[in-house]
Amino acid sequence: PPVDDPRRPATSAALFEAARAVIPGGVDSPVRAFGSVGGAPAFISSASGARVRNVEGREYVDLVGSWGPALLGHAHPEVVEAVRRAAGRGLSFGAPTAAETALAEAVRSRVPAAERVRLVSTGTEATMTAVRLARGATGRDLVVKFSGCYHGHSDGLLAEAGSGLATGGLPGSAGVPAAVAGLTIVLPYNDLEALRACFSAHGERIAAVITEAAPANMGVVPPAPGFNEAIRTVTAEHGALMIADEVLTGFRVGPAGFWGLEALDGWDRTQAGTGVTPSRPGADWRQRATWVPDLLTFGKVVGGGAPLAAVAGRAELMELLAPTGPVYQAGTLSGSPLATAAGLATLALADDEVYATVAQHAGQIAQVVGQALEAQGVPHRVQHAGSLFSVFFGQRAAEQPVGSYEEARAQETWRFAPFFHAFLDAGVALPPSVFEAWFVSAAHGQAEVELIARAAGEAARAAAQA
Ligand code: PMP
């Protein structure tokens, strides 16, 4: 029956069952499936601000935020209106539009290392293109990634990836040819010695190191002070490129992403959770920056909730892309008028006050959750990367910061499912995996912080009893 037909089932459980009969696992992205927490995922009927509503009509404080894009909260009226107007002018033309240039300019004005910007539709395409570009530019085949970092689902980047693979405990994916996997070197995160040793052994064959500017797909594991800088130095010494993946962090933790926060503002772990207000790059950005990547990837916030992402970087590298250069990349719906409208409206609204508000409320939410766990005697650690944060369970995490995927996986993961469901029962929707960051929006206010604080007691009790 049609989607709004009354004969269609009206509960999440029934919809999930119907979905599973036609969609593998009932979901179009595995992270939605409640795989590690159990139960049927909530089917969402609508969302606004900091709240989502399921098909049963129940409202939740939302800490998923569409896995990142919803920086302003859901269905911001100005973003919705911009998309509505764009839709009225035509959904897609397969020809250039002024909005694409305006969005590329908006990206570059916030992240000046993005001298040229190519719009694509997903983060996966952005990182895949960045890797191809790095290989095309250097004439080398090997790519280095860090375990626990997720860069989308292209063949070469799935090895020891975070996100849904972490949730599922998967080392990689079936269907990736060994010949392709063999071109990816996986190193432990935050391990400078391993990075140096790798470059000593294979430096002349490495096209690029790709890294999440601040990893947030194995839980939030911020770079140790100087780690990104060291990646920059080591790659430059060996003629390899540095790709900073800011699909998740870009335009979310600050106007210039995690790069702006760390390379310009000097963010470090000791400032975590204090609601530091990030600055914007000035004319002196190149002198100030402690590290500058060759290529960057963006997604999520840059599309304001519509399918849009970007690969960007140094002009002479980016000009190697077709049609100016020999590295091919294309997309029927790239720079979609609907997506550029949503992205432009979102970035226009994402001013310093928005970032300050998000940082402040994220800090408060992290604090009330930490206090509740403390009160119940649940050993844990809350880790931050700007306004992104996540909770790690267990004595080991409580005693020292989690700095790698190995350490992230060593936590007491079983405490998360009851914690998650207690929050859900109390009307708070967390990302359904212990390996995911919590996403706070500018629409989260005092009411949401209080609701989360009230729910946190029960959730902490459930975690304590697990
Ligand atoms: N890179 C990072 C850091 C991500 O977090 C993600 C998605 N969570 C991706 C790449 C892939 O983006 P997409 O899901 O849009 O393909």
UniProtKB/TrEMBL annotation:
Enzyme class: isomerase
Keywords of this entry: Cytoplasm, Isomerase, Porphyrin biosynthesis, Pyridoxal phosphate
Catalytic reaction equation(s): (S)-4-amino-5-oxopentanoate = 5-aminolevulinate
Modified residues (N6-(pyridoxal phosphate)lysine): 300
Organism field: Actinomyces howellii
Gene Ontology cellular-component terms listed: cytoplasm
InterPro entries, per database record: 4pyrrol_synth_GluAld_NH2Trfase, Aminotrans_3, PyrdxlP-dep_Trfase, PyrdxlP-dep_Trfase_major, PyrdxlP-dep_Trfase_small
Family according to the record: Belongs to the class-III pyridoxal-phosphate-dependent aminotransferase family. HemL subfamily.
Annotated compartments: Cytoplasm
HAMAP family referenced in this protein's UniProt entry, alphabetically: HemL_aminotrans_3
Entry GO MF terms: glutamate-1-semialdehyde 2,1-aminomutase activity; pyridoxal phosphate binding; transaminase activity
Name listed for the protein in its UniProt record: Glutamate-1-semialdehyde 2,1-aminomutase
Pathway noted in the entry: Porphyrin-containing compound metabolism; protoporphyrin-IX biosynthesis; 5-aminolevulinate from L-glutamyl-tRNA(Glu): step 2/2
NCBIfam families (alphabetical): PRK00062.1
Pfam families: Aminotran_3
Quaternary structure, from the entry: Homodimer.
